[in-house]
Amino acid sequence: MLKKVDTIEQFNEIIKEDSRFYFFKHSLTCPISQAAYKEYEKFTADHQEIPAYYLAVQDSRPLSNEIAERFDIKHESPQAILFSDGKAVWNASHWKITNRSLTMAWQENE
């Protein structure tokens, strides 16, 4: 289940509804981000039971900035963040975003 999120309001609903989920910040113009997004897509296809969301930085700058500020995570793109109980418990960027790293982070933060 991979869903695009565009607004702070949508993100706040996700925080309320999902106790654990992945969020991905994606740049539409960066080839590294494209490669990381493909890894994220593969992960979500293999684990459809895991809630997974993303934003396109160019389309959703206010939300991207809100996540960075609220959770004290330096903004990067691409960037994958694992949220659990309303907190960011893991994040990775660039080439560190792989199907394997996403799987391991999910298992380690159960």
From TrEMBL:
Superkingdom field: Bacteria
Species this chain originates from: Neobacillus paridis
Higher taxonomy: Bacteria, Bacillati, Bacillota, Bacilli, Bacillales
Protein name per its UniProtKB record: Bacillithiol system redox-active protein YtxJ
Classification via InterPro entries: BrxC, Thioredoxin-like_sf
